[in-house]
Design a protein that fits this description.
Length: 349
């Protein structure tokens, strides 16, 4: 019996959905080489006459009322099933070991399904990491009261709200009523006291959306562009109405679809918009080079989901994080950057 079948037997439909997300994402990331080219069109102008002193290199980033030691973190993926518990348990131990921040997956399931097991699949992240920096996560459409429950559940440092219309529409049983989004978002912004991040889930934000989000006065926007995990493909594959799923797949899952919005392009657009809200980069990050380029393109922090999931499955996550923590100072030095401020001044071709 596969893990997926075993989980199907003992868990609710919602938990099963969470497991399917993990299995279908892993299937996409098996084709790892195709995911390693997302940032190949970004060229950084490397100065030769360096002025920095290597010993002054400081990778930390001061952001969201916190001094992050490393500029990358584990982005939202898990919780809400027994596999979700295992993943959150193991990822949070790695986050603690390597001093990385970590987001939990959507806690919407724990607001609906309030049994001990479901709640524990999120709480384990704080239990393993009492002093860690942890992001709560809910979908847009929840009100401030629900957001506060999600925050309290894991004593979160910040709240991430994901806006995922294309994901919902990709499956025939996804949400279809978006009419309370503006109102509930305003309720959260007015009443939640910790920093709020608005994020996509891999379809990215257009220029106009970035401008609108910039006016909300949230603490950060996570651009979460395309190139990495493709939730159009995940949801259309698991859509109960197969005809709907097939048609969505035909429309959305090719490199030139209307939904293609690569992370590097959004970051480049944002540079020209002079947004006042700081950015988080996410979507298709699969190397220290990608982290470095994303920071140079103006972001303050870089979130990694699917690639870390793939490495976790292959028992290589700790090794790769160690590699990145060694490679990044080398990259900073090679490009004459002692810190994030210097990196933001680099010329991009
Ligand atoms: C298995 C899996 C589950 C995810 N679940 C959530 C979630 O619950 N909430 C959320 O905001 N994003 C979720 N995401 C989206 C990621 O946080 C991220 O925005 C997206 O996958 C793009 O990044 P990537 O290319 O590094 O995977 C999930 C991603 C994966 C791979």
């Amino acid at each position: 019996m596969t893990d997926l079948n075993r989980n199907k037997k003992i868990e609710s439909a919602l938990s099963q959905k969470k497991n399917e997300h993990i299995f279908l994402a892993l299937k996409q990331w098996k084709n790892i080489e195709s995911k390693k080219t997302n940032f190949s069109k970004v060229f950084l102008d490397r100065p030769s006459l360096l002025t920095i002193d290597y010993k002054n290199i400081d990778l930390s980033t001061n952001f969201l009322n916190h001094q992050f030691k490393w500029p990358f973190y584990i982005e939202a993926m898990s919780g809400g099933s027994s596999l979700g518990y295992q993943l959150n348990d193991e990822l949070s131990k790695i986050a603690r070991e390597f001093d990385l921040a970590m987001a939990v997956g959507s806690q919407s399931i724990a607001l609906k399904q309030t049994d001990k097991q479901t709640i524990e699949s999120f709480k384990i992240v704080r239990k393993n990491n009492p002093n860690g920096f942890i992001f709560a996560n809910i979908g847009i459409g929840h009100n401030a009261n629900e957001a506060q429950q999600a925050i309290d559940m894991i004593e979160a440092n910040v709240l991430e709200i994901h806006i995922n219309p294309v994901q919902e529409l990709s499956t025939s049983d996804g949400d279809r009523n978006f009419s309370n989004w503006n109102e509930t978002l305003q309720d959260i912004i007015e009443n939640i006291k910790i920093p709020i991040i608005i994020k996509e889930v891999g379809f990215g934000f257009s220029k106009n959306s970035l401008l609108k989000l910039d006016n909300l006065n949230v603490a950060a926007i996570n651009v979460a562009g395309s190139g990495g995990t493709d939730f159009g493909l995940i949801e259309s594959t698991r859509s109960p109405n197969k005809t709907w799923g097939e048609q969505v797949k035909n429309i959305s899952s090719n490199q030139n679809s209307l939904f293609t919005n690569p992370t590097y392009e959004i970051l480049k657009n944002a540079r020209n918009l002079n947004l006042k809200t700081p950015l988080i980069a996410n979507g298709g990050i699969a190397s220290a080079d990608d982290v470095f380029k994303s920071l140079a393109l103006g972001s303050h922090l870089v979130g990694v989901a699917g690639y870390f999931l793939y490495l976790w499955k292959n028992k290589k996550l700790a090794e790769e994080i160690r590699n990145w923590q060694t490679q990044l100072p080398f990259l900073y030095a090679s490009f004459n950057a002692e810190n994030l401020n210097d990196l933001h001044q680099l010329n991009i071709k």
